[in-house]
Structures are given as structure tokens and as C-alpha cells.
Amino acid sequence: MLSEEVKSMSVIAGARSDPAVLRRAIAAGFVGTVIEWYDFIIFGTVSVIAFSKVFYPEQTPFIALLLSLGTFAVGFVARPVGGIFFGYLGDRIGRRYTLIVTLTVMGIATLLIGLLPGYQSIGDAAPTLLIILRLLQGFSLGGEFGGVATLLIEHAPKDRRGAVGGWAQAGGFVGPLLGTGVILILRATLSDAELVSWGWRLPFLLSILLILVSAYIRTHVTESPEFERARAEKELSKQPIRSVLMEYPKEIFCVFGMHAGNAILFYTGLIFAVAYITRNVGLSQNKALWANAVFLLAAAIACILVARLSDRVGRKPIYLTGTILGMGMAFPLFWLLDTGSLPIVLIASAIMGTIEGGFLYGIQPSYFGELFPTKFRYLGMSLGYQAATVLVGATAPIIGLLLIESAGGSTWGFSLYLIAILVLAAVSVLIAGETMHRDIGRVDKERNESVPASIGAEGAPI
């Protein structure tokens, strides 16, 4: 038994010390996340620009917009189901194979959306099929974060988990940035009529090329060495869903609360802002898309830089700072957008992107992953993350639209809602404590050991 343990530990050390193995894992996580988020987010952008006219032409403009945003939100309903399904699969058969499946499902659903006839061609079947395909997108994306985050931090050296995990999160911004760039090119080269008629399909159809590249990379990455160790030492749980719910409910709640704060900022800044800038402020859709691009670019850069910083100062102080900064922007964000000045709107977008991407989203793989043991790390992260996404992220654009509409155009109600969610995130950070010193292969043991709660003590809250 001892020789087997020594052998498994040597395999892990060898895998983690091989730069080529780590680079392939980072590439698989980054590129795959780019594609998954490109496919998912272009739906949200196109839903505001074209879907109200293509799939809901019989409704009033306001109801059509509400239905389009509702269709976008439907994808979130399937995300917890996908998180549970793929989380279970990933903790039983491995992270690598599971991530290949998630990518395949997303690719097929996105391609079919690009080929889907509109309401004028097949009537009510058009929005019905659109909802079904959107559910498949959500089901697929439900398994993406937990899988990629787990794969990367389990490949990474202990002192680089934040930096390595940050690359996966950066892909979550580069993908939408790529999609926004495609939309901007289409708007610059096509008329509004052409865009609504057939141009909206192109971003979905183009994704097939990106998916083929990502599939090639993912099939050539090795399985997580930490998962291989756990499987060799027979640590894997036969009932991971029941086990994680019974043994780690506090950690699932912490992931839920922390990600709720991130989700409210992300979907407010990226999806709701497009509708608000065009509908309430009066800026063109092109300018709103430029604001999106700035948000995403700032978020991607901050994500990589701050994730690296978390390996030096810890996860807790960075995440807590992000929630406080987000609260501080809840009212000023709309004051800046209401100026109608494009430079000021772009500055507001850059600030929000930096807060959300750098201080919250970028360190989630390392922070969340360090809360759970290997035997159900994929599932544990996915449960809390996807629950927050569907309950907070998915509903943010609709809640914002309804609160502002009911207040006669005033944004104070939605600002207070943003603050309330961020308070929940801050409390969750305080409960989770610091995790950067943990040995992710011994989370169960360290959790049950009595560790002095002194600042800087390994495994102790900071």
C-alpha cells in the first residue's frame, strides 16, 4: 500500500513538473472556454439585436424584447442540470473525457441555431425549437466551469493555482469578445434589414471552425494527475452527489454566494447594459457593442493579472475587495451610462469589467476548487456555481428591465438589488476564509484536523 502511494505521488510530481503537460492543459482549458462562452454569449447579444424580430414579430416591441431576454434566460435553467450531470460524470470517469462531451453538445446546438428557420417560415415551431436548442446550450455550459477549473488547478503546482486557473477564466471573456467583434463587423458591413434577415446566423455558423480546433486540443490533453492519484488510491466516491451534499453543504453555499456577486455584475455589465444603453439612454447598438468589447477586454486583462496576484496575497482579500468595489459602483454605474457620452460609457464599462473579471471571476477556479476534495471537486463547484448562475445571473437582465420600467425609468431599485447580492457574496467570502495554502489532495484530512487559526498558518483562515 505504501509503495502504491509513493508511486502515485511520484506520478503527480512528474506530471506537474512537466511544463509541456501544463501548457497543454492550459490551452485545452482556455481555448475550450473561449468557444463555449462565444457560443453562449452571442445568443444573448443577438437576442437583443435580432431575435425579437425574427422569432417574436407578432408582439409589441417591449414584449418581444422581454421574450427574447426570457429565451436567453431559459438556457440558465438547464445549467444546474448540466452541472450535476457532468459533475457526476467528471468525478467518476475523469475531467478530460467529460469536457470533450460538453464541447460536442455545445457545438451541435449552436450550429443548429444558426440553421433554424424564423417565425415567418414555420410559425410557433421556430421559438419552440429555439428554446430547446438554448436548453442544450445551457446543459453543456453547466459542465464547463467545474470541469475546466478542476482540470487546470489539479495540473498546476501549489504556488501557481491562481495564475493557472485564471487562464481558464480569461477564456470566458475572450470568447464573448470574439463574438462581439464578429457582431460589430456584421453591423458595419450589413444593413439592419440584412442583419435581421440572415446576418444574425453567421456568428453561430462560424463557431463550427473554432469548435474543431478546440476539440483537437482537448483530445490531446492528459487527465488530471490528482484525479489519477485519487482513482489509483480508490478515493473516488461511488455516490458523489449524496456525499458532497451531506459533507460539504457550507462550501456549496459559499460558492453559491460568492458566484452570485460575480454573476450579477457580469450579466448586468454584458447583457443588460446593451438593452439599457439602447432603450433608455438612446445610444446606438453599435456603441453599446463597443461598450461590451471594452468591458470584456478590461475583464480579460484584469483576470490574468489579479489571478497571479492571488498566489501571493491570497484569495480572500481579493474577492472581498471585489465585492466592496462592486457595491461602490451600483449607483455610479447608471449615472455614468445616463450621460450618453460614449467616452464616459466606455470608462464605466472598463471599471465594471476590471472589478468583475479581476477581483471576482479570475480567482474562482483556485478559490472554489480549494474548498473541495478531489473525489467530488468537479461536482461541488458546479452545484454552487450553476445554482447562482440560474437564480441570479439569468434573472439579472429581466429583473433590471422590470424594476426600471416599474420605477418610470429610475435605476435606484436595481442598484439596491445589486448591493444586496454583493453583500451576500461578501458574507460568503468571510465564511469560506482563506484557502491558498491548502493541499488539494488532502482537503478532507485538513478539514478534520485541528489547525491553529493564526494568520499565515497553513490551511488556516486569514
| Overall number of structural domains | 1
- Range of helix content: over 70%
Mean pLDDT, all residues: 85
**Structural class of the secondary elements?**
mainly alpha
Q: How many E-type strands? A: 0
The CATH fourth-level homologous superfamily: MFS general substrate transporter like domains
Q: Indicate the CATH class.
A: Mainly Alpha
Distance between the first and last residues' Cα: 36 Å
- The CATH level-2 architecture is identified as Up-down Bundle
Backbone shape: globular
Radius of gyration: 22 Å
Percent range for β-strand residues: under 5%
Largest sheet: none
In DSSP terms, counting alpha (H) and pi (I) runs of 4 or more, how many helices? 22
Runs in which pLDDT lies below 50 for 5 or more consecutive residues are 1-10, 450-462
CATH topology: Growth Hormone, Chain: A
Order of helices and strands: HHHHHHHHHHHHHHHHHHHHHH
Care to describe what's here?
This protein has 462 residues and is mostly helical. The chain has a single domain, classed as Up-down Bundle (Growth Hormone, Chain: A). Helices cover 80% and strands 0% of the residues. The protein is built from 22 helices and no strands. Helix 2 packs antiparallel against helix 3. The longest helix is centred in the N-terminal third of the chain and has 36 residues. The radius of gyration is 22 Å and the shape is globular. The two termini are 36 Å apart.
List its traits.
462 residues; mainly alpha; Growth Hormone, Chain: A; 22 helices; 80% helix; globular
